[in-house]
Amino acid sequence: MQQRPLRTSRRTLLTATATAAAAAAIGVTPALAQAPHQSKDRELRRIIARMSLEEKVGQVFVSRVYGETATNPAQADIDLNLAQLGVRDAAELIAKYHVGGIIYFGWAHNVREPHQIAGLSNGIQQAALRQDTPIPLLISTDQEHGIVCRVGKPATLMPGAMALGAAGSRADARRAARIAGRELAALGIRQNYAPVADVNVNPGNIVIGVRSFGADPEAVARMVAAQVDGYQGGGVAATSKHFPGHGDTEDDSHFELPYIHHTREEFERLDLPPFKAAVRAGIDSIMTAHIVVPALDPSEDPATLSHPILTGVLREQLGYDGVVVTDSLGMEGVRTKYGDDRVPVLALKAGVDQLLNPPSLEVAWNAVLKAVQDGELTEERLDESILRVLRLKAKLGLFRDPYTSDREVDRTVGIPQHLRAAEEIADGTTTLLVNADKLLPLSRLSTPDVLVVGADPSSPSGTTGPPTKVFAGALTELGFTATALSTGTAPGAAKIDEAVAAAAGKDVVAVLTYNVSATSSQRTLVSRLAATGVPVVAIAVNRPYDVARLPEAKAVLAAYSWTDTELRAAARVIAGRARPQGRLPVPVQRADDPATTLYPIGYGLSY
Known about the structure:
Layout: H1 8-26, H2 37-50, H3 53-59, E1 61-63, H4 75-85, H5 90-97, E2 101-103, H6 114-129, E3 138-141, E4 143-145, E5 148-149, H7 161-167, H8 170-186, E6 191-192, H9 217-233, E7 239-243, H10 264-280, E8 285-288, H11 307-317, E9 323-325, H12 332-335, H13 343-350, E10 355-356, H14 361-374, H15 379-395, H16 406-410, H17 416-426, E11 431-435, E12 449-454, H18 467-477, E13 481-486, H19 493-503, E14 508-513, H20 521-531, E15 536-540, E16 555-558, H21 564-575, E17 588-589, E18 597-599
Helix pairs in contact: 2-15, 3-15, 5-6, 8-9, 8-17, 9-10, 18-21, 19-20
């Protein structure tokens, strides 16, 4: 039988009995979350003192697990769990490894719909409280919004970081995060790996890009602080990432080990301000980066494994005593120099508290256990990290009540007030960069007939369809005639010919562009369409730098993402139902002369 989320009445009964029983078993009062800091630490240390070494090792791990339920996943998910984790389901994972946290992914089949997510979260907490030392788990995910979003519709999807950076409103950034935090908490997800605190000073940065608020360190710092306040006010632990700053690299740490060649002075000026702001704002957790910064650590170890960076800079220089979590230990950036058995041990020695998603939990878990048994890691060092993790769990009220309910989901997730707020916030983000002959807004034309072509990149979770269809649908809802034709991110000659033929008789062609490079055939598409005499409106649906390579377009806008939220906002701007208010949060350089700025930070047109 498929596990369902706990109904309110049963949840109340279970919370009163199971939580009280768990508290009695470990000598903790249910009011732990409200205890003064010093008193709380005494109670938490008593918990730690009663834990076995194996339980202690487990508390510093955050693992993936496959399946929609904690005890009865689909057979395909059981097979994946057995192959990768040596267990059948989340309950067995908790019983075997005593993990302190679980991370949700779409590809792990954890996030199908809100009630299922809440049921999975409740099942995980029930399994945790059945253990010899019953400690609630910290359930986490990457819900940055924009192009990185694990929980999709019907949850509320907010604009991503660079879109919020373009709007420039700290109040909107805080509001978006607070709503997002409330919805995650209602699903039982209490740690969010957001906001991104990287300063995107490199246009070639393929791993961060629009996930960053922008290129101005102080502006990014203000937005980060606002979102920390929003998320944590909404009931989840915020996580600023990726320390010490992933903004100036053209390499992707998922696949290789990037180097940041900033001097110490450049690091202090460019990379550090958002993290300082996060610490001042009381950030609950900070995620490490798998990058090398020789100016901070001449050994050229990845920051995740660097004692000078994590303990020297983060702990000692910034005075941060919250939870430090690694980026995924399955990424190649952290695996290129050391084996999977050494990485978790070195991370803990560097100052990490949570080891996220190791490729082999068995190898990593046993490596940490052996390091403590052999004396390479002291048990006291392990206790330091466990105390930080338990403090966070207590702060979030998980010892008091780790559960959620159907009722909480229904009254919080994707409710009309949140959806209206998302649209209001998104209306301030779209940036108009070019508007030759005052082509826009299209409301100047009578019932315009629009062809929508262009890129249909793989959509983030929760979008309702290919971006061209979503955008055409949004224009249709606004009273226009709109037809969609996907030409892809690399259109060939036949597809370009098809688009040119389809443009005949249209009033306007809207082209969704995606990371246009010097050799991209998207440039040919725009050029051929412009040659027909039909005005071309280009909408950059990822990085705004596309505008430098599209001189034939009559109008160019930056949407910063291809999610429904941001596409619909761009459609309202084009249609004249909203004014373009966004301002570039990054500079755009000339395509033929990268040393020359074409559009500076703060540039943007309006009606």
